[in-house]
Amino acid sequence: MRRAEDCRTMAELRTEIDRLDAELVALFAERAGYIDRAAAIKAGVDLPARIETRVEEVVANVRQHAASHGLPPDLIEKFWRRLIDWSIAREETILGPDSLRQPGEPK
């Protein structure tokens, strides 16, 4: 692993970017495992896939992390909302398409 500032050629940069991409995919796969477990837990306690308060909490957290790392919060938010939508769609494959139902509402 090289720091970005230690890379002297495009080949070195590309190697590090490819390494990071592989790590990011592994992290997304790990996150998907937690999403699958969330769906199983939600099914047992009759919660919907989409819980707006949690969506906004995740977005606020990500915006804060982005800012602390010098990244544009608006751009990271847009990216993360796509990830959240994908995650909710994944949960709905287990729970059914109930994204409009709020916690406590009957199915």
Automatic annotation (TrEMBL):
EC number of the protein: 5.4.99.5
Spans traversing the lipid bilayer: none
UniProt keyword annotations, A-Z: Isomerase
Chorismate mutase domain mapped to chain residues: 4-95
Cross-referenced Pfam families: CM_2 (PF01817)
Key word Isomerase present: yes
Record carries keyword Lipid metabolism: no
Protein name: chorismate mutase
Enzyme class: isomerase
InterPro entries reported for this sequence: Chorismate_II_sf, Chorismate_mutase-related, CM_dom_sf, CM_II_prokaryot, Isochorismate_pyruvate-lyase
